[in-house]
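In this section we turn from sequence analysis to structure. A common task in structural bioinformatics is to predict how a protein folds when a small molecule is present, because the ligand can shape the pocket around it. The inputs are simple: the amino acid sequence and a SMILES string for the ligand, here zinc ion. Study the lines below before reading on.
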Amino acid sequence: MPFVLPTLDAPTSRRDLLRTAATTAAAVAGAATVLGAPRSLLAAEAGAEARYFPEVQTPDEAIQRLMEGNKRFVAGNIQAPNRNMARLREVAGGQRPFAAFLGCADSRVPVEIVFDQGFGDIFVTRIAGNVADPAIIGSLEFGTLVLGAKVLCVLGHTKCGAVDATIKGQEVPGQISTLYQHIRRAAKEAKGDLNAAIRRNVQVQAEILEEASPVLAKLMREGKLKVVGGVYDLDSGVVTMVDV
Ligand SMILES: [Zn+2]
């Protein structure tokens, strides 16, 4: 049976979305019989796909949504909300992410996964050392002003190679060292202590975002956006907030 999925242009109630998911679930379960796959297993997967969280309204709700997601991830209790084909089609016509990120490009910090979010939920920029360069700032202005993200999180992580390399001032090939100029201030203020430099770098980049972007500063003044900081622990998966 064909089914039509909603887009942002055609507002749809949560109940409709759940019904769509249920229809998908029924189709999957039906297909299971044909394919000879265990019906119970597929039904359980389809049930997980039906999870749908209500829209975030305020910056504080957005922060809470993120921290709850990280708690689920750390506890091994991931719900993978909005991570299915129904959600993919729902947001294909338009996105309204509730949070934006400036994270490190490190392959061990996949932001959607560690905060247990799905398609269309978070607007993520990633660059080695999570530094606020002009292209990143422009991207984050788009994610907040245009798309409506209510929280902007600068996310550093333990054992960050970019911060470590800046502290050590290592010779590196190509243009890798262009990152150093953005991290040097934090490295210096932390007097070479890696963990302190990682935390300080989160604060410095958050300051740069506000100072270099009148767009972000205005959203913050108006209470439409909160900028927060965090450090992700590679060993535990826990995100610890950093005052910015
Ligand atoms: Zn890093």
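The domain at 57-242 is CATH 3.40.1050.10 (Beta-carbonic Anhydrase; Chain A). As an exercise, try to locate the residues that line the zinc ion site and compare them with your own expectations.
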